[in-house]
Amino acid sequence: MGAYILRRLLLIIPTLFGILLINFTLVQFVPGGPIEQIIADLEGAGSATERFTGGTVDAGAGEESGYRGARGLPPEFIAELEAQFGLDKPPLERFFLMIGDYLVFDLGESYRRSISVVDLVLEKMPVSITLGLWSTLIAYLISIPLGIRKAVNDGTKFDTVTSAIIVVAYAIPGFLFAIMLLVLFAGGSFFQWFPSRGLVSNDWEELSAIGKVLDYFHHIALPVTASTIAAFATLTLLTKNSFLDEIRKQYVMTARAKGLSEGRVLYGHIFRNAMLIVIAGFPGLFVSVFFGGSLIIETIFSLDGLGRLAFESAVQRDYPVVFGTLYVFGLIGLIVGLLSDLTYVLVDPRIDFESRET
Fold first, then answer.
1. pLDDT given at position 319
2. Are 15 and 7 in contact (CB under 8 A)?
3. Long-range own/partner contacts, residues 225-228 (CB < 8 A, 24 or more apart)
4. Final residue of a structural domain among 111, 130, 153
């Protein structure tokens, strides 16, 4: 097993390299850039993408500069900005310099905020981890028991009604459900039971230990509920179908013929085999909640997390933050995938990934 883990860890390097290479290449064709954004800010022109073509700058070209918005600004100033951001080097050289820094986890410094990307990511990480972990945990705690009961009662009224509710919940977009929660329970038009923004109250530091915990859960109740809804629906049906497949197998009929109770058959024999596919879905579920839904939920509930940071950095062309968050997202996703495989082996020792690769 050690050799398999080592191979998977070594594969992380070329995988991340490929992800960064593809995105770095695409960025070269995106109109606008960090220089254009700064010029637009200096001139009060708004979005740089509305004013600049993103052409390559010749620092000594003056009025013929590729930066159309740079006309009137000294060429020396433009050249100084390019040198400051490292944009005076060819793209290929910039890419490999970035990769070299990333190998030692030096993610650079934000163009816009004059703070290291590592510090910025660590500052925003707690919000995204809160949404990802709590949503995944709640989804599993609800979906697994519900999916098992639906499998045991397949075709009954309970199964039909719960399936209808699950389909409706899955069909509602996450952002729409989040807005509904705000309108209903956060002072929109009906009740004001929950706060509409932030992870904690302004006076959080002044609260007692218990008060801090209660205030924290009071704030995350709505965003976690909104981010859980789609994951809950998918995981419930996955659990049900997995258990149904196992219930119909020959070894279950044999166990029943031996006189074992339904509880012993279900939890002593079926559970371990049926849970394999559910465990396999953990990385995808966690990553989708942590990355995919974080932007929308963080924006609607005014939470300052990684999703919102990545979006704002892309709009502002703050490339060190864009690629830094991409690097962190990719690394977490690959590591979680490896942990999922190790959980496979823990649940079912019969699985041997090394023998399958030989």
1. 84
2. no
3. 225/181, 226/174, 226/177, 226/178, 226/181, 226/297, 226/300, 226/301, 227/131, 227/135, 227/174, 227/289, 227/293, 227/294, 227/297, 228/135, 228/138, 228/139, 228/289
4. 111
Whether residues 127 and 83 fall in one domain: no
Query: pLDDT digits over 88-105, tens only?
Result: 778 888 888 888 888 888
- Model pTM score: 0.68
Domain residues for the domain of 88 are 2-111
Both 6 and 106 in one domain: the answer is yes
Residues 209 and 335 in one domain: yes
pLDDT band at 73 (very low <50, low <70, confident <90, very high): low
Q: What is the CATH number of the domain that holds 177?
A: 1.10.3720.10
Q: Cβ distance 98 to 323 under 8 Å?
A: yes
Looking at the structure, tell me whether residues 168 and 261 fall in a common domain. Answer: yes
Question: Which string of b and e fits 264-287 if b means at least 16 CB within 10 Å?
Answer: ebbeebbeebbbeebbbbbbbbbb
Instruction: Return the axis-axis angle of helices 271-280 and 209-247, rounded to nearest 10°.
Output: 120
CB atoms within 10 A of CB 144: 20
